[in-house]
Structures are given as C-alpha cells and as structure tokens.
Specification:
Elements lengths: L4 E3 L6 E3 L16 H47 L5 H23 L1 H22 L8 H31 L4
Antiparallel strand pairs: 1-2
The structure holds zinc ion (ZN).
Pfam families: Zn_Ribbon_1
Keywords: Membrane, Transmembrane, Transmembrane helix
Protein name: Zinc-ribbon domain-containing protein
C-alpha cells in the first residue's frame, strides 16, 4: 500500500507521486518551489481578505450595539412619561431587534446585516411619515451608518466566500 503513495505536506492527505497537486487542498506537493510559493501567497491573500472582512463586520456589530443602546435609553426615558409611553415601547422593541441582529450577524453575516439594514431603513421611513423634515436630522451621521451597512454587506459576501475557500484548503491543517 505504501507503494507509490505520498503524503501531502500541507493537509496530510495521501496522494499519488504522479500527482503534482494534492487533490484535497491543491498544494503542489510534487511541484517546484515557485508553485509552492504561489500556493502560500494565495493563502496569505485570502487570509488578508478574510481579516479585512472581519473588521468591517465588527464595525457593523458596533453600530448595531450603539443603535440598540440609544433606543434602549430613549425608550426608558419615554416610558416614564405618559405622553410618550407607546413611543417608549416602540424604542425598546427596536433596541431588542438591533441586539438580536448582532447575534444574527455572528451566525449568518449577510442575512443578519441585510435584516438590520432593512429594519433601520424602515425606522427612517416611519420618521418621514411623522415629519418629513426629520429625515434631514443628523443626515451626515445617517450617511455614515449607510456606509457602514453597505461595506458590511459586501464584506459579508467576502467573508462567506473566503472562509469557505480557506476551510477547504486548510481542511486537515
Ligand atoms: Zn493537501
């Protein structure tokens, strides 16, 4: 059985000595140094993309915690006044939704961020119905939020794609 069999030095899968590339991870076990360097370089690149995506996802999570905290504090203040009691309930619910989205982003980054973004947009829309002038309130901050959401969405795609690619490559590492 040992005859004509080799082990991939990257993932330990046994490979035939005729195979240049490991069928499991693609490592050029029987290739030249240049091919091996290229393989390592590709992994480095993917790790960099993944790390960058993780940073952007973290920004989204921080934003969601901030939104949850603001809604919670305002909600408590509103709840204590009869006139704004029902608005207070709405704010508390929003705080819960934003916190829940953080856990959703952890499990499924893309759908979690999309859900949070749509919910946030709906909140902005509901404000427009009460008073259109309010839409321009803190417009710069709102644009920053949109930027964080949009970057998060494209990073979530990268995150899914590259963590999967790295997983297949590092299968047995
Ligand atoms: Zn391998």
């Amino acid at each position: 059985m040992e005859y004509n069999q080799n082990q991939c030095s990257h993932c330990n899968e046994s490979i035939s000595s005729e195979d240049v590339f490991c069928p499991n991870c693609g490592y050029p076990e029987n290739g030249d140094q240049k091919e091996k360097d290229k393989f390592e370089y590709r992994i480095e690149l993917r790790k960099n993309v993944l790390n960058d995506a993780k940073k952007k996802l973290k920004n989204v999570k921080i934003l969601l915690w901030v939104l949850a905290a603001i809604n919670l504090v305002l909600g408590i203040i509103f709840l204590m006044q009869d006139l704004t009691f029902y608005d207070g309930i709405g704010l508390i619910i929003s705080a819960i939704v934003f916190s829940a989205c953080v856990f959703w982003v952890n499990k499924q980054p893309l759908t979690g961020i999309l859900a949070a973004f749509i919910f946030w947009l709906l909140l902005q829309l509901s404000v427009v119905f009460t008073d259109p002038a309010l839409l321009l309130n803190g417009i710069i901050l709102k644009l920053v939020f949109i930027g964080i959401f949009v970057k998060g969405i494209s990073s979530a795609k990268d995150y899914n794609e590259y963590s999967q690619k790295l997983q297949t490559i590092n299968a047995r590492n």
